[in-house]
Amino acid sequence: MNIAMLGTGYVGLVTGSCFAETGNDVVCVDIDETKIEQLRQGRVPFYEVGLEDLIQRNTRESRLSFSTDPAEAVRRAEVVFIAVGTPQVSAGGADLSQVFAAAETIARAMNGGKIVVTKSTVPVGTAARVKEIIEAGTEHPVAVVSNPEFLKEGTAVEDFMKPDRVVLGGEDAGSLERLQSLYEPFMRRGNRVILTDSRSAEMSKYAANAILATKISFINETARLCEKEGADVEQVRRIMGLDHRIGPHFIYPGIGFGGSCLPKDIRAMIAMGGDELEMPLLQAVDRVNETQKGLLLEKVERHFGNALAGRTLALWGLSFKARTDDMRESPAIRVIDGLLQAGARVRAFDPEAGKEARKRYGDRIEYGDNNYEVVAGADAVLILTEWNEFRSPDFARLKELLHQPVVFDGRNLYEPAVMRQQGFIYYSIGRGRG
Ligand SMILES: NC(=O)c1ccc[n+]([C@@H]2O[C@H](COP(=O)([O-])OP(=O)(O)OC[C@H]3O[C@@H](n4cnc5c(N)ncnc54)[C@H](O)[C@@H]3O)[C@@H](O)[C@H]2O)c1
Questions:
Q1: Quick one: which of 161, 217, 384, 432 could link to 288 by a disulfide (CB 3.0–4.6 Å)?
Q2: Nearest residue CA, atom 11 of ligand 1?
Protein backbone atom coordinates (compact mmCIF):
# COMPACT_ATOMS: atom_id res chain seq x y z
CA MET A 1 0.00 0.00 0.00
CA ASN A 2 1.23 3.53 -0.69
CA ILE A 3 1.17 5.49 2.55
CA ALA A 4 1.81 9.13 3.44
CA MET A 5 2.56 9.90 7.09
CA LEU A 6 2.01 13.56 7.95
CA GLY A 7 4.00 14.22 11.12
CA THR A 8 7.25 12.39 11.77
CA GLY A 9 7.46 12.52 15.57
CA TYR A 10 7.46 9.66 18.07
CA VAL A 11 4.20 8.27 16.68
CA GLY A 12 4.54 9.07 12.97
CA LEU A 13 8.09 7.79 12.68
CA VAL A 14 7.41 4.53 14.53
CA THR A 15 4.13 3.94 12.66
CA GLY A 16 5.66 4.74 9.27
CA SER A 17 8.72 2.56 9.89
CA CYS A 18 6.64 -0.40 11.06
CA PHE A 19 4.34 -0.18 8.03
CA ALA A 20 7.42 -0.08 5.79
CA GLU A 21 8.79 -3.11 7.62
CA THR A 22 5.71 -5.10 6.60
CA GLY A 23 6.22 -4.29 2.92
CA ASN A 24 4.36 -1.01 2.37
CA ASP A 25 5.75 2.01 0.58
CA VAL A 26 5.83 4.84 3.12
CA VAL A 27 6.74 8.52 2.83
CA CYS A 28 7.14 10.25 6.20
CA VAL A 29 6.57 13.99 5.94
CA ASP A 30 7.35 16.77 8.40
CA ILE A 31 7.44 20.55 8.33
CA ASP A 32 10.64 20.40 10.41
CA GLU A 33 13.35 20.44 7.73
CA THR A 34 16.17 19.68 10.15
CA LYS A 35 14.42 16.53 11.33
CA ILE A 36 13.84 15.31 7.77
CA GLU A 37 17.43 16.06 6.80
CA GLN A 38 18.71 14.09 9.82
CA LEU A 39 16.48 11.15 8.91
CA ARG A 40 17.67 11.20 5.32
CA GLN A 41 21.18 10.79 6.68
CA GLY A 42 20.02 7.78 8.70
CA ARG A 43 20.07 9.61 12.03
CA VAL A 44 17.06 9.23 14.34
CA PRO A 45 16.04 12.52 16.01
CA PHE A 46 15.10 10.89 19.31
CA TYR A 47 15.93 7.78 21.32
CA GLU A 48 13.66 4.78 20.85
CA VAL A 49 14.81 1.19 21.22
CA GLY A 50 15.02 -0.69 17.89
CA LEU A 51 13.94 2.24 15.74
CA GLU A 52 17.26 3.09 14.12
CA ASP A 53 17.68 -0.43 12.71
CA LEU A 54 14.17 -0.39 11.33
CA ILE A 55 14.66 2.98 9.65
CA GLN A 56 18.03 2.13 8.18
CA ARG A 57 16.88 -1.22 6.76
CA ASN A 58 13.66 0.10 5.24
CA THR A 59 15.35 3.19 3.81
CA ARG A 60 18.05 1.02 2.27
CA GLU A 61 15.43 -1.27 0.74
CA SER A 62 13.56 1.79 -0.64
CA ARG A 63 10.28 1.24 1.21
CA LEU A 64 10.72 4.23 3.52
CA SER A 65 11.58 7.79 2.56
CA PHE A 66 11.43 11.24 4.13
CA SER A 67 10.08 14.45 2.68
CA THR A 68 9.09 18.01 3.46
CA ASP A 69 6.64 18.02 0.54
CA PRO A 70 3.24 16.87 1.82
CA ALA A 71 1.45 17.49 -1.48
CA GLU A 72 3.64 15.08 -3.40
CA ALA A 73 3.37 12.44 -0.65
CA VAL A 74 -0.43 12.76 -0.53
CA ARG A 75 -0.80 12.58 -4.31
CA ARG A 76 0.96 9.21 -4.53
CA ALA A 77 -0.75 7.73 -1.45
CA GLU A 78 -3.84 5.61 -1.09
CA VAL A 79 -3.84 6.09 2.69
CA VAL A 80 -2.80 9.33 4.41
CA PHE A 81 -2.11 9.30 8.14
CA ILE A 82 -2.29 12.43 10.26
CA ALA A 83 0.19 11.96 13.14
CA VAL A 84 0.95 15.58 14.02
CA GLY A 85 1.08 17.00 17.55
CA THR A 86 -2.01 17.90 19.56
CA PRO A 87 -0.50 19.86 22.44
CA GLN A 88 -2.45 21.49 25.21
CA VAL A 89 -3.85 24.99 24.80
CA SER A 90 -3.61 27.20 27.88
CA ALA A 91 -7.25 26.56 28.83
CA GLY A 92 -6.48 22.80 28.93
CA GLY A 93 -8.12 21.58 25.71
CA ALA A 94 -6.31 20.02 22.75
CA ASP A 95 -4.81 22.39 20.19
CA LEU A 96 -6.01 21.01 16.86
CA SER A 97 -4.35 23.59 14.64
CA GLN A 98 -1.70 21.12 13.35
CA VAL A 99 -4.40 18.53 12.58
CA PHE A 100 -6.55 21.01 10.70
CA ALA A 101 -3.54 22.40 8.83
CA ALA A 102 -2.70 18.84 7.74
CA ALA A 103 -6.33 18.32 6.63
CA GLU A 104 -6.18 21.49 4.51
CA THR A 105 -2.92 20.34 2.94
CA ILE A 106 -4.55 17.00 2.07
CA ALA A 107 -7.58 18.76 0.58
CA ARG A 108 -5.37 20.83 -1.72
CA ALA A 109 -3.35 17.80 -2.86
CA MET A 110 -6.24 15.37 -3.49
CA ASN A 111 -6.01 13.82 -6.96
CA GLY A 112 -8.39 10.87 -6.45
CA GLY A 113 -10.29 9.00 -3.73
CA LYS A 114 -8.26 8.51 -0.51
CA ILE A 115 -8.48 7.17 2.98
CA VAL A 116 -7.40 9.68 5.62
CA VAL A 117 -6.57 8.32 9.05
CA THR A 118 -6.43 10.39 12.24
CA LYS A 119 -3.66 8.78 14.31
CA SER A 120 -3.06 11.78 16.60
CA THR A 121 -4.94 11.79 19.90
CA VAL A 122 -7.91 14.05 19.19
CA PRO A 123 -11.17 15.01 20.90
CA VAL A 124 -14.43 13.38 19.91
CA GLY A 125 -15.76 14.76 16.64
CA THR A 126 -12.36 15.56 15.12
CA ALA A 127 -12.53 12.84 12.42
CA ALA A 128 -15.85 14.30 11.29
CA ARG A 129 -14.35 17.81 11.26
CA VAL A 130 -11.32 16.59 9.25
CA LYS A 131 -13.70 15.05 6.69
CA GLU A 132 -15.59 18.34 6.40
CA ILE A 133 -12.38 20.31 5.88
CA ILE A 134 -11.14 17.98 3.17
CA GLU A 135 -14.52 17.79 1.42
CA ALA A 136 -14.74 21.58 1.38
CA GLY A 137 -11.56 21.71 -0.68
CA THR A 138 -11.94 18.87 -3.17
CA GLU A 139 -14.41 17.03 -5.40
CA HIS A 140 -12.62 13.71 -4.83
CA PRO A 141 -14.16 11.24 -2.37
CA VAL A 142 -12.53 10.89 1.06
CA ALA A 143 -13.19 8.47 3.91
CA VAL A 144 -11.84 9.38 7.34
CA VAL A 145 -10.98 6.68 9.87
CA SER A 146 -10.05 7.31 13.49
CA ASN A 147 -7.13 5.06 14.48
CA PRO A 148 -5.81 6.19 17.87
CA GLU A 149 -2.32 5.02 18.81
CA PHE A 150 -1.59 3.20 22.06
CA LEU A 151 2.19 2.71 21.79
CA LYS A 152 4.41 3.62 24.75
CA GLU A 153 7.66 5.52 24.39
CA GLY A 154 10.49 3.20 25.38
CA THR A 155 8.81 0.13 23.88
CA ALA A 156 7.16 1.85 20.93
CA VAL A 157 8.38 -0.46 18.16
CA GLU A 158 7.53 -3.59 20.14
CA ASP A 159 4.11 -2.16 21.05
CA PHE A 160 3.36 -1.30 17.44
CA MET A 161 4.51 -4.68 16.12
CA LYS A 162 2.54 -6.63 18.75
CA PRO A 163 -0.34 -4.36 19.73
CA ASP A 164 -2.78 -5.23 22.53
CA ARG A 165 -5.47 -3.91 20.18
CA VAL A 166 -5.91 -1.80 17.07
CA VAL A 167 -8.91 0.49 17.04
CA LEU A 168 -10.46 1.51 13.73
CA GLY A 169 -13.39 3.89 13.95
CA GLY A 170 -15.31 4.95 10.90
CA GLU A 171 -18.48 4.81 8.92
CA ASP A 172 -17.20 3.59 5.53
CA ALA A 173 -17.00 -0.22 5.37
CA GLY A 174 -14.59 -0.31 2.41
CA SER A 175 -11.96 1.88 4.06
CA LEU A 176 -12.22 0.01 7.34
CA GLU A 177 -11.58 -3.20 5.42
CA ARG A 178 -8.52 -1.69 3.68
CA LEU A 179 -7.06 -0.59 7.00
CA GLN A 180 -7.79 -3.92 8.57
CA SER A 181 -5.68 -5.53 5.84
CA LEU A 182 -2.89 -3.00 6.49
CA TYR A 183 -2.80 -4.14 10.14
CA GLU A 184 -3.13 -7.84 9.30
CA PRO A 185 0.64 -8.57 9.57
CA PHE A 186 0.59 -7.31 13.19
CA MET A 187 -2.18 -9.73 14.19
CA ARG A 188 -0.25 -12.97 14.16
CA ARG A 189 -1.10 -13.67 17.81
CA GLY A 190 -4.79 -13.49 16.90
CA ASN A 191 -7.03 -10.78 15.62
CA ARG A 192 -7.29 -7.86 17.99
CA VAL A 193 -8.75 -5.26 15.64
CA ILE A 194 -11.76 -3.47 17.06
CA LEU A 195 -14.05 -1.90 14.48
CA THR A 196 -16.21 0.86 15.86
CA ASP A 197 -17.58 4.31 15.09
CA SER A 198 -15.15 7.22 14.96
CA ARG A 199 -16.49 8.98 18.05
CA SER A 200 -16.06 5.88 20.25
CA ALA A 201 -12.58 5.32 18.82
CA GLU A 202 -11.58 8.88 19.68
CA MET A 203 -13.00 8.59 23.19
CA SER A 204 -11.34 5.21 23.81
CA LYS A 205 -7.84 6.72 23.62
CA TYR A 206 -8.61 9.40 26.18
CA ALA A 207 -10.43 6.97 28.46
CA ALA A 208 -7.48 4.53 28.36
CA ASN A 209 -4.97 7.24 29.26
CA ALA A 210 -7.25 8.66 31.93
CA ILE A 211 -7.51 5.34 33.78
CA LEU A 212 -3.72 4.95 33.71
CA ALA A 213 -3.29 8.46 35.11
CA THR A 214 -5.95 7.73 37.74
CA LYS A 215 -4.12 4.61 38.91
CA ILE A 216 -0.89 6.56 39.34
CA SER A 217 -2.52 9.41 41.24
CA PHE A 218 -4.39 6.88 43.37
CA ILE A 219 -1.23 5.09 44.47
CA ASN A 220 0.57 8.40 45.01
CA GLU A 221 -2.21 9.65 47.27
CA THR A 222 -2.12 6.32 49.09
CA ALA A 223 1.66 6.71 49.44
CA ARG A 224 1.17 10.05 51.17
CA LEU A 225 -1.27 8.46 53.57
CA CYS A 226 1.20 5.63 54.19
CA GLU A 227 3.82 8.21 55.10
CA LYS A 228 1.46 9.92 57.50
CA GLU A 229 0.38 6.66 59.12
CA GLY A 230 3.75 4.90 59.12
CA ALA A 231 2.82 2.17 56.59
CA ASP A 232 4.91 0.97 53.64
CA VAL A 233 3.28 1.67 50.28
CA GLU A 234 5.53 -0.90 48.57
CA GLN A 235 3.96 -3.63 50.71
CA VAL A 236 0.51 -2.17 50.09
CA ARG A 237 1.14 -2.05 46.34
CA ARG A 238 2.27 -5.68 46.20
CA ILE A 239 -0.74 -6.83 48.15
CA MET A 240 -3.12 -4.81 45.97
CA GLY A 241 -1.49 -5.98 42.73
CA LEU A 242 -2.06 -9.66 43.50
CA ASP A 243 -5.79 -9.08 43.27
CA HIS A 244 -6.63 -9.96 39.65
CA ARG A 245 -9.29 -7.28 39.56
CA ILE A 246 -6.64 -4.66 40.29
CA GLY A 247 -3.46 -6.07 38.70
CA PRO A 248 0.16 -5.05 39.28
CA HIS A 249 0.55 -2.43 36.53
CA PHE A 250 0.57 1.34 36.91
CA ILE A 251 0.40 1.31 40.70
CA TYR A 252 4.02 2.24 41.29
CA PRO A 253 4.35 5.21 43.62
CA GLY A 254 6.71 7.96 42.53
CA ILE A 255 6.97 11.64 41.79
CA GLY A 256 4.04 11.87 39.43
CA PHE A 257 3.33 11.12 35.79
CA GLY A 258 4.69 13.25 32.98
CA GLY A 259 5.34 12.88 29.29
CA SER A 260 3.58 14.21 26.24
CA CYS A 261 0.37 12.23 26.77
CA LEU A 262 -1.13 11.59 30.21
CA PRO A 263 -1.07 15.19 31.53
CA LYS A 264 -2.42 16.81 28.37
CA ASP A 265 -4.90 14.03 27.65
CA ILE A 266 -6.66 14.16 31.01
CA ARG A 267 -6.89 17.95 30.66
CA ALA A 268 -8.29 17.57 27.14
CA MET A 269 -10.87 15.15 28.51
CA ILE A 270 -11.86 17.62 31.22
CA ALA A 271 -12.10 20.32 28.53
CA MET A 272 -14.35 18.03 26.45
CA GLY A 273 -16.78 17.94 29.38
CA GLY A 274 -16.78 21.74 29.24
CA ASP A 275 -19.32 23.76 31.23
CA GLU A 276 -21.98 21.12 30.68
CA LEU A 277 -20.24 18.21 32.35
CA GLU A 278 -17.92 18.72 35.26
CA MET A 279 -15.32 15.96 35.66
CA PRO A 280 -14.30 16.07 39.32
CA LEU A 281 -12.49 12.73 39.27
CA LEU A 282 -10.06 13.74 36.51
CA GLN A 283 -9.61 17.19 38.01
CA ALA A 284 -8.51 15.51 41.22
CA VAL A 285 -6.17 13.15 39.32
CA ASP A 286 -4.46 16.18 37.78
CA ARG A 287 -4.29 18.06 41.09
CA VAL A 288 -2.83 15.08 42.96
CA ASN A 289 -0.22 14.70 40.24
CA GLU A 290 0.81 18.34 40.35
CA THR A 291 1.24 18.08 44.13
CA GLN A 292 3.21 14.86 43.79
CA LYS A 293 5.68 16.43 41.35
CA GLY A 294 6.68 18.81 44.15
CA LEU A 295 7.04 16.12 46.82
CA LEU A 296 10.74 15.36 46.46
CA LEU A 297 11.58 19.04 46.46
CA GLU A 298 9.60 19.44 49.70
CA LYS A 299 11.64 16.64 51.27
CA VAL A 300 14.90 18.21 50.10
CA GLU A 301 13.91 21.61 51.48
CA ARG A 302 12.86 20.08 54.79
CA HIS A 303 16.10 18.14 55.14
CA PHE A 304 18.28 21.17 54.47
CA GLY A 305 16.12 23.50 56.57
CA ASN A 306 15.20 25.55 53.51
CA ALA A 307 18.82 26.53 53.02
CA LEU A 308 19.66 25.32 49.53
CA ALA A 309 21.62 28.31 48.28
CA GLY A 310 25.15 27.24 47.44
CA ARG A 311 24.46 23.54 47.93
CA THR A 312 25.19 21.06 45.17
CA LEU A 313 22.49 18.56 44.30
CA ALA A 314 23.11 15.65 41.94
CA LEU A 315 20.25 14.31 39.82
CA TRP A 316 20.04 10.79 38.45
CA GLY A 317 17.55 10.81 35.60
CA LEU A 318 15.82 13.59 33.69
CA SER A 319 13.41 11.92 31.26
CA PHE A 320 9.80 11.46 32.38
CA LYS A 321 10.32 7.70 32.50
CA ALA A 322 13.07 5.19 31.70
CA ARG A 323 13.99 4.12 28.15
CA THR A 324 13.13 7.46 26.55
CA ASP A 325 14.85 10.82 26.10
CA ASP A 326 11.51 12.63 26.29
CA MET A 327 11.43 15.36 28.94
CA ARG A 328 8.01 16.78 28.12
CA GLU A 329 6.20 17.44 31.45
CA SER A 330 8.89 15.42 33.24
CA PRO A 331 8.79 15.69 37.04
CA ALA A 332 12.53 16.50 36.74
CA ILE A 333 11.58 19.92 35.35
CA ARG A 334 9.72 20.85 38.54
CA VAL A 335 12.66 19.66 40.64
CA ILE A 336 15.33 21.48 38.61
CA ASP A 337 13.32 24.72 38.46
CA GLY A 338 12.77 24.59 42.22
CA LEU A 339 16.41 23.88 43.01
CA LEU A 340 17.69 26.63 40.71
CA GLN A 341 15.21 29.08 42.16
CA ALA A 342 16.46 28.24 45.65
CA GLY A 343 20.01 29.02 44.53
CA ALA A 344 21.30 25.43 44.45
CA ARG A 345 23.86 24.15 42.00
CA VAL A 346 22.46 21.28 39.93
CA ARG A 347 24.51 18.49 38.35
CA ALA A 348 22.60 15.97 36.30
CA PHE A 349 23.07 12.69 34.51
CA ASP A 350 20.59 10.85 32.32
CA PRO A 351 21.58 7.99 29.98
CA GLU A 352 19.61 9.52 27.07
CA ALA A 353 17.97 12.83 27.93
CA GLY A 354 21.09 15.00 28.32
CA LYS A 355 20.58 16.55 24.90
CA GLU A 356 16.96 17.47 25.68
CA ALA A 357 18.02 18.96 29.02
CA ARG A 358 20.70 21.04 27.31
CA LYS A 359 18.06 22.47 24.95
CA ARG A 360 15.96 23.49 27.94
CA TYR A 361 18.55 24.52 30.53
CA GLY A 362 21.73 25.25 28.56
CA ASP A 363 24.55 25.88 31.02
CA ARG A 364 22.26 26.74 33.92
CA ILE A 365 22.88 23.19 35.09
CA GLU A 366 25.93 20.92 34.72
CA TYR A 367 25.93 17.57 32.96
CA GLY A 368 27.93 14.47 33.74
CA ASP A 369 28.97 11.61 31.50
CA ASN A 370 27.96 9.02 34.06
CA ASN A 371 26.04 8.79 37.32
CA TYR A 372 29.11 8.74 39.59
CA GLU A 373 30.67 11.83 38.06
CA VAL A 374 27.74 14.04 39.10
CA VAL A 375 27.66 12.92 42.74
CA ALA A 376 31.30 13.76 43.49
CA GLY A 377 31.23 16.36 46.26
CA ALA A 378 27.42 16.78 46.11
CA ASP A 379 25.34 17.38 49.23
CA ALA A 380 22.77 14.78 48.13
CA VAL A 381 21.60 12.75 45.17
CA LEU A 382 18.02 12.80 43.89
CA ILE A 383 16.75 9.86 41.85
CA LEU A 384 14.19 11.10 39.36
CA THR A 385 13.95 8.40 36.68
CA GLU A 386 13.83 4.62 37.14
CA TRP A 387 16.60 3.78 34.63
CA ASN A 388 17.87 0.22 35.11
CA GLU A 389 21.45 1.39 35.60
CA PHE A 390 20.44 3.21 38.79
CA ARG A 391 18.90 0.11 40.37
CA SER A 392 21.97 -1.40 41.95
CA PRO A 393 24.80 1.10 42.09
CA ASP A 394 28.04 0.60 43.97
CA PHE A 395 26.75 2.02 47.26
CA ALA A 396 30.18 2.17 48.88
CA ARG A 397 31.46 4.25 45.99
CA LEU A 398 28.37 6.44 46.06
CA LYS A 399 28.82 7.10 49.77
CA GLU A 400 32.47 7.89 49.36
CA LEU A 401 31.84 10.33 46.52
CA LEU A 402 28.98 12.23 48.15
CA HIS A 403 29.88 15.12 50.42
CA GLN A 404 26.99 14.02 52.64
CA PRO A 405 25.43 10.53 52.34
CA VAL A 406 21.91 11.72 51.58
CA VAL A 407 19.68 10.04 48.98
CA PHE A 408 16.24 11.30 47.91
CA ASP A 409 14.73 8.46 45.91
CA GLY A 410 11.71 9.56 43.87
CA ARG A 411 11.25 6.08 42.39
CA ASN A 412 11.63 3.76 45.40
CA LEU A 413 14.53 1.88 43.84
CA TYR A 414 16.22 0.83 47.08
CA GLU A 415 15.34 -0.84 50.38
CA PRO A 416 15.17 1.69 53.24
CA ALA A 417 16.60 -0.74 55.82
CA VAL A 418 19.55 -1.65 53.60
CA MET A 419 20.26 2.00 52.87
CA ARG A 420 20.25 2.88 56.56
CA GLN A 421 22.52 -0.07 57.32
CA GLN A 422 25.01 1.30 54.81
CA GLY A 423 24.97 4.67 56.52
CA PHE A 424 22.79 6.66 54.16
CA ILE A 425 20.14 9.14 55.16
CA TYR A 426 17.51 7.81 52.82
CA TYR A 427 14.21 9.39 51.81
CA SER A 428 11.74 7.65 49.49
CA ILE A 429 8.03 7.76 48.68
CA GLY A 430 5.39 6.45 51.06
CA ARG A 431 7.56 4.13 53.12
CA GLY A 432 7.04 5.07 56.70
CA ARG A 433 7.43 8.54 58.13
CA GLY A 434 10.04 10.57 56.22
N1 LIG B 1 4.38 10.18 22.07
C2 LIG B 1 3.58 9.18 22.43
O3 LIG B 1 3.98 8.30 23.20
C4 LIG B 1 2.18 9.07 21.90
C5 LIG B 1 1.48 7.87 22.06
C6 LIG B 1 0.18 7.77 21.55
C7 LIG B 1 -0.39 8.87 20.91
N8 LIG B 1 0.30 10.04 20.81
C9 LIG B 1 -0.34 11.16 20.10
O10 LIG B 1 0.18 11.20 18.78
C11 LIG B 1 0.29 12.55 18.32
C12 LIG B 1 1.73 12.85 17.93
O13 LIG B 1 2.54 12.71 19.09
P14 LIG B 1 4.12 12.70 19.00
O15 LIG B 1 4.63 12.41 20.36
O16 LIG B 1 4.53 11.86 17.85
O17 LIG B 1 4.40 14.24 18.65
P18 LIG B 1 5.74 14.92 18.17
O19 LIG B 1 5.68 16.32 18.63
O20 LIG B 1 6.90 14.06 18.50
O21 LIG B 1 5.60 14.90 16.56
C22 LIG B 1 4.68 15.64 15.82
C23 LIG B 1 5.35 16.05 14.51
O24 LIG B 1 4.40 16.63 13.63
C25 LIG B 1 5.06 17.62 12.88
N26 LIG B 1 4.07 18.49 12.22
C27 LIG B 1 3.32 19.47 12.75
N28 LIG B 1 2.49 19.98 11.80
C29 LIG B 1 2.71 19.30 10.65
C30 LIG B 1 2.16 19.34 9.35
N31 LIG B 1 1.19 20.19 9.04
N32 LIG B 1 2.62 18.47 8.42
C33 LIG B 1 3.59 17.58 8.73
N34 LIG B 1 4.15 17.50 9.97
C35 LIG B 1 3.73 18.33 10.92
C36 LIG B 1 5.95 18.30 13.90
O37 LIG B 1 6.98 19.05 13.29
C38 LIG B 1 6.46 17.10 14.70
O39 LIG B 1 7.68 16.60 14.17
C40 LIG B 1 -0.24 13.41 19.46
O41 LIG B 1 -1.60 13.64 19.25
C42 LIG B 1 -0.05 12.52 20.68
O43 LIG B 1 -0.95 12.83 21.71
C44 LIG B 1 1.58 10.16 21.26
A1: 217
A2: 120
